[in-house]
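Batch job 17 of 40 flagged for manual review because the log was empty.
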Amino acid sequence: MQPLADHGQDSYVGHGRLTDRVALITGGDSGIGRAVALAFAREGADVLCSYWKEDEDADETRRLVEDAGRRCLTVAGDIGDREHCNALVQRAHDALGRLDVLVNNAAYQMAYDSFLEIPPDELDFVFRTNILAMFHLCQAAVPKMRPGSTIINTTSIQAAQPTPQLLHYATTKGAISTFTKGLAQEVAERGIRVNAVAPGPIWTPLVAMSFPGEKLAQFGEDTPLGRPGQPGELAPLYVFLASEDSRYISGEVIGATGGTPLH
């Protein structure tokens, strides 16, 4: 993709807010996931990054985390598979010693002129990847999390303002917002907080592969800030939600939309 996304590698400065914590980040090979992995590492956390099949991208994420002096495991596979989700949680817990933060970030989207054109197998894949995987991962992770742990889900402005061309993606993002608010109420008694980040137009490989060139050329221009956001600009929000700075915040969906209202 051109220009390359900014993951914060030249700008993010850590302040020890996640020292010796352990995070599992899905979709950690690129985009928002890579930016979050980098920021968490610079804040002192070890990370396990799950990804689908982009080995070279995952290797670059691991290099950035290790350059920050922290441990990084990268694990390929389909998070739509429940057994794979269970294995991810178990490996993070066993290899890194604990599990404090789960970032459900992985997602798939593709644009179509009409929802009538969406192939049935893609409908199944999008729902398995974007929302069912969150149920699998959280069911595996919550019993292993200590009080003070956090879950951060990535939803989207599409949950509130769906684009017809992305209807299957947008529908899963609406489900993620609901899932976040409901799960937060149940796990509060365990001392676990659950929140979500709702990005607007963020310049990531997922976007670059989803739209034709003429659409990409105008991507993000319709926001009040007049441009797309960069993954590195969202990472501090994930750090905030993972840290003690947000200890009285749970069940919230926080927008990072370039000024476009979520509602």
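Reviewer: the log was empty due to a logging misconfiguration, but the result itself is present. The chain has a mean pLDDT of 95. Unflagging and moving on to job 18.
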